[in-house]
Design brief:
The protein is of the alpha/beta class. It has one domain (about 5-265): Rossmann fold, CATH 3.40.50. Helices cover about 35% and strands about 20% of the residues. Strand 7 (about 210-215), helix 7 and strand 8 (about 235-240) form a beta-alpha-beta unit. About 45% of the residues are buried.
Length: about 270
């Protein structure tokens, strides 16, 4: 499918963000915005966004964050801080939505966020920071805190990147694969990143939340989504057996069924 580049301001300069629209002609239907994982991009979602939007008769917007896919690469000397996901949620995503006419009273309407891993954390941050600007969120394997299992698996991914063909495989999906990989890997393995903790912000969530975790997730435990429910009791939990860190790849059928039902049930004009 065709993607395009959108110019937005970020960090005192202009950057370009790669976006792809799905079923834009369905103007009256819910708009689902897909936020990818720490090494993801538009192309790494593969056909899942299109399949979900087809199943629910939704519109879709898929994007590659700054540093990923065909978006502006991160300069090699630029080191991300503990707040890199906060900045994506509070600066880059609002700027993109403003450029595209998404939000309260805007031409393309209110978004539903659908985030995976780091993208799930960004969805939580956006919804907590702008509670009136989102209809609801679905988060897959989100991080609300740093667990030992996450750090151990990310260390292993570093070795895989250095010693196997993982770099070549990822290079098919990113204009600057080293920008994408090291921006993510370096900050996650920085001891300072242990301070990352979204729990104090979660009570600010006002929208419906569907939180999904695989029982075999190698990057996080059920404590992540159970923590969301503890601080935001409106959260619905979906725990998937025979599922690792990527529910949309490991259990696409049950995930799609649950997400379509959830979005439809919480969209007032569809009832």
């Amino acid at each position: 499918m065709h993607s395009e580049l959108v110019d937005i301001p970020f960090d005192g300069r202009g950057i370009r963000v790669e976006v792809q629209w799905l079923r834009p002609e369905r103007a009256e239907r819910p708009l689902v915005v897909f936020l990818h994982e720490g090494l993801g991009s538009i192309s790494l979602w593969r056909d899942y966004p299109a399949a979900l939007c087809e199943a629910g008769d939704f519109r879709g917007l898929v994007l590659s964050r700054y540093g990923y896919g065909r978006s502006t690469p991160r300069p090699a000397e630029e080191k991300w801080g503990v707040d890199f996901m906060h900045r994506q949620a509070r600066e880059a995503l609002p700027a993109l939505f403003d450029a595209l006419g998404i939000g309260p009273g805007r031409s393309r309407g209110m978004p539903w966020l659908f985030g995976h891993s780091d993208g799930g954390s960004i969805a939580l941050l956006y919804a907590a920071s702008f509670p009136q600007a989102v209809d609801g969120i679905t988060v897959l394997a989100p991080h609300i805190m740093v667990e030992d299992v996450s750090v151990t698996s990310i260390q292993a991914t570093r070795e895989t990147y250095l010693r196997t063909d993982l770099r070549d495989k990822l290079a098919r999906h990113h204009d600057d694969v080293d920008s994408a990989f090291w921006g993510w890997n370096d900050i996650w393995l920085d001891p300072a990143f242990r301070a990352f903790d979204l729990r104090p912000l979660l009570p600010q969530l006002r929208c419906p939340v569907l939180a999904v975790q695989g029982e075999d997730d190698e990057y996080g435990t059920m404590a992540q989504i159970e923590g969301i429910h503890r601080y935001a009791p409106q959260t619905v939990l979906l725990k998937l057996a025979r599922c690792g860190h990527s529910p949309h790849r490991d259990q696409p059928g049950p995930l799609t069924e649950a997400a379509v039902r959830f979005i439809t049930a919480h969209t007032s004009y569809l009832k």
